[in-house]
Amino acid sequence: MGLPSGAPSLAQILEAHWTLRKVLPATPLWMFPVLNRMLGGQVGLKLEAWQPTGSFKVRGALARLAHLTPEERERGVVTASAGNHSLAVAFAAQLLGGDPRYGLPTGNRFPEQDPGPGSNGSLPAAGRSELHGSP
């Protein structure tokens, strides 16, 4: 059985690895010996919350945006999500010198990611948020 249609090649995976490695911290893998014994296997947690935007999505956003053509970069980046994807794209675009626009719904279920009034200010200072509708 071969790779699914549109799957990245090994060369593309390695290129993304080297791109991400330059700017993102390694994600720790914590092992849990007590759970290992209880379950009879290896149990580990990969702590993606330690990434700059709090999720693994920053990897995909950075890998994709790093390959924008100059014309695509000039046009800019627009994204919308309930939180993690928009934050990742905004972070990656800012890191690469862009001015992203991202949308988060009003009443976002993650208050720490809501740049609206009353937020605690932990949203990365990247791009311009535009809040629309309800989640």
Structure report:
- By secondary structure, this protein is of the alpha/beta class.
- Helices cover 36% and strands 13% of the residues.
- It has five helices and five strands, in the order αβαβααβαββ.
- The protein has helices at residues 10-23, 33-39, 57-65, 70-75, 84-95, and strands at 29-31, 44-46, 78-80, 101-104, 128-131.
- Helix 3 (57-65) packs across helix 5 (84-95).
- The N and C termini lie far apart (40 Å).
- Residues 113-127 and 131-135 have low confidence and may be disordered.
Question: Biggest sheet: strands side by side, in what order?
Answer: 3-4-5
Number of helices: 5
Following the backbone from N to C, one meets helices and strands in this order, namely: HEHEHHEHEE
Return the domain count: 1
Judging by the overall fold, what is the CATH architecture?
Answer: 3-Layer(aba) Sandwich
Anisotropy-based shape:
globular
The structural class is alpha/beta
Distance between the ends: 40 Å
Can you summarize the main beta sheet? Answer: 3 strands, parallel
Radius of gyration: 18 Å
Query: What's the total number of strands?
Result: 5
